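Thread: Newbie trying to understand structure tokens

Hi all, I'm a second-year student working on a class project, and my supervisor (Dr. K.) asked me to get a predicted structure for one chain before our next meeting. I've only ever worked with sequences, so writing a 3D structure as a token string is new to me. If someone could post the tokens and maybe explain what I'm looking at, I'd be very grateful. Here's the chain:
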Amino acid sequence: MRTLIATVLGLWAGPAAAFCGTYVGSPGVELTNQTSQVIISRQDSRTTLTLANDYQGEATDFAMLIPVPVMMEREDIRTVRPELFQRFDDYSAPRLVTYECEDFYWEDDMAAGEMDGGGDDGGWEPEAPSSVVVEAEYAVGIYDIVILSSTDSSDLIDWLTDNGYGANPQAEEMLGEYIDDGQLFFAAKVNLDEVSEEGSYLEPIQFSYESDAFALPVRLGTLNSPGEQDVVMYILTDEDDGKVGISNYPMIEIEDECMVDVYAEGGVDNYYGTKFADAWGEEDGAGWMVEYAWSTSSCDPCPTEPPSQDELEEAGYDGERWNSYFTRLRIRYTPEAATQDIMLYTAGYAANEQVRFILYNEQMEDRHPVCGIGMVEEPGTCDDETGSDPGGETGEEPGGGNGGGSGSGAENSGDEDNGEELNDWGREESSVEVTELGGVESSDGGGCSHTGSRSSSLSWTFILGLMALFGRRRQSAG
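---
Reply by user tm_fold:
Sure, no problem. This is what the structure looks like when written as tokens:
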């Protein structure tokens, strides 16, 4: 994060899809050693940016410079809890789930009979070069913040250097482009009088502004790039605006919603990281994907509780939780490929989407494709083990067959529920035992639910279960 922040910056066929099984865990590995996290709230023309800060080093060496389109007042700037990033990451990370035969027997029973359808003493140098103007000075938490304008990039470099920023001379041309574009500059450094000697940490900084431009400035952060950089964006919008995409870099996809033996693949972190890297490698130095997109008031499977109303407000969202929508994007780029700042757009629809892998289970081969293979010949089945016919006398399989699929997540239409005794995030209470996997301590969550069109009348039911252990893997799936 420090380079960005220091310089910124198969499921069932048919109209309804069933997400069943037990949540196991999420990849916890950083895909590169230079991964940034940004929370963005976008409503109408107002953008709120919250920047995570993992800076390591002396507080005297910390500085931040971010191009901003408009002037900001003191009330537009604040600090937030660092835990907010962990909460958003836990909620939206790519996930691994496991299925057991019992999950689908329960599903069949449901289908048969249950479904309802500022300070001015911040310590800044009092005099600046003639073309650099300190438009405002604020003290916010442990930070001294200034808003700068300039008509000459070399003057701006000199001012930053004279005031302890140690600006990179290579930034002069890029800063000139921002100046020509009419941008101001948000600069922050640590007020050492506000920092204790022990136990100090640099809080995330958040600021809001009005602008028609929906963008994230990243080009300055490439000047000290190690070669590749990842940015993970947690984006809140109104549900009517739906999920968010990137308009000026290519989108990539990976195969998911398929079964995989993650143990044989070196663990879930290694498997997902490799798949992402392979897909990104097919592009010319830059590519992004949707890792999660869902109404914020729910999730399925739920690795943790969805963000609360208070957490959404802390992130800068103004409105009720059930009217909000959550998108998680990941972009990777090289310095050579990052020729433009990231331009974002709202899609105008709220299709549910997530990166999800299914823990390999031989008995599920007739229901889910195997990653890299697809549907196998002579598949294993739950019927072989139980000797029963879950579909009843007709011999039909519950749920109407397999769906599976590939892409950057499972997409479904928006979901409503009118089941009874729902908890405060729109799910029936569920308790499952989950297992630590791939060095990631997983959280409770799991079960079955149905998602369908907005006009559908659906009830939600969730399954208790344990993580399935691997049996003999069939040669055809190996």
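A couple of things are worth pointing out once you decode it. The two ends are 38 Å apart (CA to CA). The longest strand covers residues 229-238. Feel free to ask follow-ups in this thread.
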